[in-house]
């Protein structure tokens, strides 16, 4: 079925959309701090912002398109339902805002019951992470109007994975198997050729795969260890003979590079350097914004600070990696909004290891301190402002007294 195309980038639409987006997410305070060295001080408290943080281009584009869809259909067809597959980005406040605009959120992989509600001509927004090939085909068969906000960096990974597939090369994907982006990527690995895929989460799993490549092993143990993380029909004795590495775009660059290095080394030992090109492929698929935020935090962490606050959605991969980086160096608190700083004696924050929110008492030291702040690519500036204001409030300082008129 031919898909109906709509132009959401028309100037008349975007002018109103951009004004609306700015009103929801902009922060004049954050802009001022950025323009004066990314630092603000008063009394015995100094707050330093990482040089790069918050919304990236791909996130801004996804939000703009969602708002533009709402504007377009409100103008030309007010009764057309608009659906969103899962979350537009991994930030609860942003998704609540989308929901408040009358956009209905359904499963990232819609159930049969959800699909039965969709009619030809209904609008469906594909989020920044993309969607699985099978889901897209079902929506197209329904005659839905698709508003595709998939990030360009994600689509670059898909292109490479499809190429691996066409060449019967198994994609080894460094990522989180249950993440929407990785699910979409793995679906690409099987959609256009005879390739397979295997998802590895970390270096421990990578080493297990490398050992199997070099020495073989217990196939059933392998399949059980990676259950749910490989393609149907995957056989490690067959499908690890030629592999290509790709990754979820929001992983830690250093870890992805090490995954590549270890698998390349295993393949070189197995097949010999002269034959390596037949058995191993890779390319850099970490998104630029993710890397910029990791680099900026690495630089910030070299400065003396009492603690770090990381702001963003708890299910945001790129944000969780920022929190991981901070934890190595100093006390780090991963919060989704300023309300989690309940007092100078109590903070509720996400524990990456327990995978749940916990409470920490006496978290804010007294005396002269510096606090670092960063935020994931899906965190809007207004939430960063709220956090800065709250920190100064906890020291009895109104931020208004710090700002020039």
Structure commentary:
The protein has 3 domains: 145 residues, 4-hydroxy-3-methylbut-2-enyl diphosphate reductase, catalytic domain (Cobalt-precorrin-4 Transmethylase, domain 1), CATH 3.40.1010; 95 residues, Rossmann fold, CATH 3.40.50.11270; 134 residues, Cobalt-precorrin-4 Transmethylase, domain 1, CATH 3.40.1010. It has 16 helices and 15 strands. Helix content is 45%, strand content 17%. The chain is globular and about 65 Å long. The protein has 405 residues and is of the alpha/beta class. The termini are far apart.
Write a concise keyword list for the protein shown above:
405 residues; alpha/beta; Cobalt-precorrin-4 Transmethylase, domain 1; Rossmann fold; 3 domains; 5-stranded mixed beta sheet; 4-stranded parallel beta sheet; 17% strand; globular
Question: How would the blueprint of this fold be written?
Answer:
Layout: H1 11-25, H2 28-35, E1 39-42, E2 45-49, H3 57-76, E3 82-85, H4 92-100, E4 104-106, H5 112-117, E5 123-126, H6 133-142, E6 145-148, H7 152-166, E7 170-174, H8 180-191, E8 197-200, H9 203-215, H10 219-225, H11 236-239, E9 243-247, H12 253-271, H13 276-279, E10 280-282, H14 288-300, E11 307-311, H15 317-329, E12 332-335, E13 346-351, E14 356-361, E15 369-375, H16 381-393
Parallel strand pairs: 2-15, 3-4, 3-5, 5-6, 7-8, 7-9, 9-10, 11-12, 11-15
Antiparallel strand pairs: 1-2, 13-14
Task: Tally the structural domains.
Answer: 3
Q: How many β strands by DSSP?
A: 15
Strand order of the largest sheet: 1-2-15-11-12
CATH superfamily of the largest domain: 4-hydroxy-3-methylbut-2-enyl diphosphate reductase, catalytic domain
- At CATH level 2, the architecture of the largest domain is 3-Layer(aba) Sandwich
Overall body shape? globular
The residue ranges in which pLDDT falls below 50 over 5 or more consecutive positions are none
Our estimate of the beta-strand percent is: 15-25%
Structural class by helix and strand composition: alpha/beta
What is the fold named in CATH at topology level of the largest domain?
Cobalt-precorrin-4 Transmethylase, domain 1
Radius of gyration: 23 Å
Helix run count = 16
- Quote the distance from N terminus to C terminus: 58 Å
Q: If you average the pLDDT, what whole number results?
A: 94
């Amino acid at each position: 079925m031919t898909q109906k195309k709509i132009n959401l980038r028309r100037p008349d639409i975007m002018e109103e959309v951009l004004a609306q987006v700015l009103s929801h997410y902009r922060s004049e305070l954050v802009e001022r701090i950025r323009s004066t060295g990314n630092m603000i001080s008063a009394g015995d408290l100094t707050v330093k912002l990482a040089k790069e943080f918050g919304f990236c281009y791909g996130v801004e584009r996804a939000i703009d398109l969602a708002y533009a869809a709402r504007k377009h259909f409100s103008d030309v067809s007010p009764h057309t339902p608009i659906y969103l597959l899962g979350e537009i980005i991994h930030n609860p406040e942003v998704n609540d805002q989308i929901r408040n605009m009358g956009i209905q959120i359904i499963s990232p992989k819609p159930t049969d019951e959800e699909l039965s509600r969709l009619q030809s001509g209904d609008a469906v927004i594909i989020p920044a992470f993309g969607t699985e090939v099978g889901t897209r085909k079902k929506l197209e068969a329904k005659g839905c109007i698709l508003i595709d906000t998939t990030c360009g960096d994600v689509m670059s990974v898909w292109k490479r994975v499809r190429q691996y597939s066409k060449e019967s090369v198994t994609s080894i994907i460094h990522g989180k198997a249950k993440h929407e982006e990785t699910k979409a990527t793995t679906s690409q690995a099987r959609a256009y050729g005879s390739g397979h895929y295997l998802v590895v989460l970390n270096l421990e799993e990578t080493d297990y795969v490398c050992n199997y490549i070099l020495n073989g092993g217990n196939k059933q143990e392998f399949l059980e260890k990676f259950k749910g993380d490989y393609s149907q029909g995957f056989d490690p004795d067959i499908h690890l003979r030629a592999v290509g590495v790709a990754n979820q775009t929001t992983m830690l660059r250093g870890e992805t590079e090490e995954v590549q290095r270890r698998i390349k080394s295993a393949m070189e030992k197995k097949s010999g350097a002269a034959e390596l090109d037949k058995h191993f492929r890779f390319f850099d698929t970490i998104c630029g914004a993710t890397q910029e935020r990791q680099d900026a935090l690495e630089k910030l962490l070299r400065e003396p600070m009492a603690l770090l606050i990381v702001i963003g959605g708890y299910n945001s991969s790129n944000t969780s990696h920022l929190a991981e980086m901070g934890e190595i160096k100093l006390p780090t608190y991963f919060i989704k909004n300023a309300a989690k700083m309940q007092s100078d004696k109590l903070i509720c924050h996400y524990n990456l290891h327990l995978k749940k929110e916990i409470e920490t008492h006496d978290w804010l030291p007294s005396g002269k301190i510096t606090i670092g702040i960063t935020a994931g690519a899906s965190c809007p500036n207004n939430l960063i402002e709220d956090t800065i204001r709250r920190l100064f409030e906890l020291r009895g300082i109104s931020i208004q007294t710090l700002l020039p008129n």
